[in-house]
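Why predict the complex rather than its parts? Because the way molecules touch one another can change local conformation, and only a joint prediction can capture that. The input here totals 593 residues.
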Amino acid sequence: MYGSGIYMISKDELKHLGWLSRLELTIGELDRYVSQIDEIIKYFDNLDTIPLSESEHTYSAKEVSELRDDKNRVFKWDTLQSLKNRKDGFIKGPKMS
Amino acid sequence: MPNHLYRLTANEVAHGIKNREFSAQEYISQILERIEKVDNKINAFIVVDKQGAMEKARSIDKRLHEGDYVGDLVGVAVGIKDNICIKELKTTCASKILEGYIPPYDASVIKRLKEKDAIVVGKLNLDEFAMGSTTEFSKYGPTRNPWNLDYVAGGSSGGSAASVAASECAVSLGSDTGGSIRCPSSFCSVVGLKPTYGCISRSGLISYSNSLEQIGPLGKTVLDVVMVMNAIAGIDENDQTTRPMTPTLPSEDIPTSNRLSKYTANQNKRNIDIGLVKELIEGADPVVSKCIYSAVDLFESSDCKCEETSMKSIQYALASYYTIATAEASSNLARYDNIRYGFDYNPEGYEWNTYFSNVRNNFGDEVKRRIIIGSYVLSAGYYGKYYLKAHMARERIRQEIKSLFEKFDVLIGPTMPILPFKIGEKLDDPLKMYQIDIDTVIANLAGIPAISIPIGFSNSLPVGLQIMADEMCEQTLFDVASFFEKIVDIRRSADI
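Output of the joint prediction:
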């Protein structure tokens, strides 16, 4: 795997991307993923084969402009009864540091 | 009491129950017995709701006895892919991350199925968060192909296709982001439809890539798929991407009186112009292309015009798909922090970032890879090189397909470029796994409907034909598919 030339992505970049997505990758995972992800990203270079102009964007097939009236609606709290980690009407979470 | 009721199609079940040939309870007991007998071999189900199914069957029999009205899908056993929410029934997406999740609401498609008196028998296995093509990336183990237990059932809706092929339920619902309904349908010899984007509500579908995915039906026959479509398709105010079901024909204007309100499987075949996409056939295994060419011969001998055509933009379809899908996945899976839903892990005492990392390490390898790739293609400096280009490529694909539909009614090709392969064969090479999606991602990128129908066996393994039509032209797909079904009889019930 190492013989095929320059890696587009390093283990450090991979670790950093993991951190951005709150995935703390182990050394084993970094070893496993770096060549696999590198191969995939190199494959994406297929996108460079097309001549592209700025104007080619997909627009939604539907005009999404229908908002409901700005009226107060009571939120039904009973749907949240089954939520885990509830205490005194609050939801428990880890502490901010 | 008639035996083997589990072998009946949805149409036969609904008619049988309405005409009192057998009761809903008799049918559902046999279905549940069937699941108990075969599911330990194929592993299609994650959860079987025996109690709920029997209760619903009892209530249907009671209403029939009292002469009450019953829906079009009365008593039909339906399996639901486990990324679609059902109230008070465990929904896991085959992941440790949602191990304890019990949705407080029904997805819109579930509400609609219940209104038609269908009976949900359980939740079906999938690749974790619908990311995969073989159902091997499931926390609950792979689903095996009912036609040969050493082979994959396809994915990510492997449970949905295998359960129908093994007669564990009459029809099922899957979801299709890059081929996840059509791939397992092809590998398991059943009919599977990915509808036009916006045809079916995604409210209650746990998101993976929301500009690409659609819920769709799987069944043994085109008629069964049509019956489920008639129950679940249509605008939903809970999903603002849904659109009216009016088909948009390129040149004709449909008079209002003739506008379809329901789909049919009546084979009212007009002279169909069929385009055979060269790049898809040439990229397929010879044993697969052979089956496709036999299908073409059958079409041509029945007065359909088959003409070879080319789609240049296929060369970057896969790159465009995986760039967009992983980008959207990295965003959609950011919500899994184990605070509002998830598994048992008390947050007290933990620091914020440590807790989230510990939680999110429970994603499987494939999910983690896609989140990382998605973050990469969206990151500063790379966004223009990958994500933006992928969107432009997508628009190019969409325009090329649109122009092809000005000439042809449908485009056909193999659903999968290869036959089903052995379990474990492609696990070590993710890119090779992605490349088997080459035939199916086009329809998701363009937002058009596509159906896979069984067209034969090669080396005793199923081969599927994919038919694509223009936006909202599902009826054209049903016309061509049911016509083909009439002229060729392919086995759809595995002997297991």
